[in-house]
Amino acid sequence: MTTIRLATEKDVPRIVELYHELTIAVSHVEQVANPSAEDYRRVFQEICADPRHELFVAEDGGRIVGTVILIVVPNLSHSATPWALVENLVVTSGHRRRGTGKMLLEHVIARAREKGCHRIELCSDKRREKAHRLYRSVGFEQSAHGFRIWF
Ligand SMILES: CC(C)(COP(=O)(O)OP(=O)(O)OC[C@H]1O[C@@H](n2cnc3c(N)ncnc32)[C@H](O)[C@@H]1OP(=O)(O)O)[C@@H](O)C(=O)NCCC(=O)NCCS
Questions:
Q1: 25 in a domain, yes or no?
Q2: Phi, psi of 137 (to 5 degrees)
Q3: Per-residue pLDDT of the chain (151 residues; tens, 9 = 90+)
Q4: Which of 49, 105, 108, 115 shows the smallest number of beta carbons within 10 Å?
Q5: pTM for this one?
Q6: How many folded domains does the chain comprise?
Q7: Residue 77: which domain range?
Q8: 132: CA distance to ligand 1 center in Å?
Q9: What CATH number is given to the structural domain containing 56?
């Protein structure tokens, strides 16, 4: 059975491993970065220390098979209600099409509602058509154009 929980420090190496399955473009900044295990640990601690960040993992039979992060942004527009951002959704290749991605997304959508957000949004590379099908299946609408600058 797959369950979802907040990540702990011991999960960090596995989460980093999963992020390799996410990569389709590598920015210049990433090309020159060479993070150590200690760097990853420090950044994880920063994430944990910020109540606006929630890093989740999906676990199945003691193994982490997926992950996603939710970021809640304080906001003065929209009657001073926060909005939420979803990033870094990945399910390991051997565990796909079993509903884990959907479970992770439904979890962060519920959390954003609980936190009083007026919307939840995400940005996804145009090439990720399979992921887009998943996003639509849990209620995301393609109602905006995303713009990015990669550094
Ligand atoms: C996108 C991703 C997270 C989906 O995870 P998953 O656990 O396989 O997704 P689910 O099993 O919950 O799929 C739910 C629905 O999404 C759609 N979907 C997901 N993967 C699909 C695929 N490969 N082909 C067609 N539809 C797909 C289907 O509608 C599916 O429902 P169904 O299986 O009942 O038909 C996973 O494929 C992944 O990690 N891909 C690489 C990283 C990535 O693209 N992340 C998103 C970055 S924006």
A1: yes
A2: -65, -20
A3: 999 999 999 999 999 999 999 998 899 999 999 999 999 999 999 999 999 999 999 999 999 999 999 999 999 999 999 999 999 999 999 999 999 999 999 999 999 999 999 999 999 999 999 999 999 999 999 999 999 999 9
A4: 49
A5: 0.96
A6: 1
A7: 2-137
A8: 8
A9: 3.40.630.30
